[in-house]
Amino acid sequence: MPVLPSQNIQRDVEWYQKYTGFEPVHAGDMYAVLKRENLYIHLQWHADNIMDPLLGGSVIKIFVDDIQPIFEELVERGTIRPEKLRKNTPWKTHELGFFDLNKNAIFVVQDA
Fold this sequence. Notes:
Blueprint: E1 3-6, H1 9-20, E2 23-27, E3 31-36, E4 39-45, E5 59-63, H2 68-77, E6 93-99, E7 105-111
Parallel strand pairs: 1-4, 5-7
Antiparallel strand pairs: 2-3, 3-4, 6-7
């Protein structure tokens, strides 16, 4: 279960709802749990200072059986542009990626 850093939990919950379709299961001031089908993402507040750094974001990969409907939805939501889908990569995947508001990189990957 990925736990991603967040500077503003409420802002980021709204962003994930709008741009990725993840819905809140729990959303407090310091921590949120978001769900989409059987996938979960956790957000944890960080102050982004020397005592509690965001560290420039994290990277997660979400593996799926069929990337096409997710790709089409994310294009429709304005999360990504159509050219972001990379099919038949040299490492035998179809994949897309985007950044959230905290510079967390989120990749959706399908084995080719």
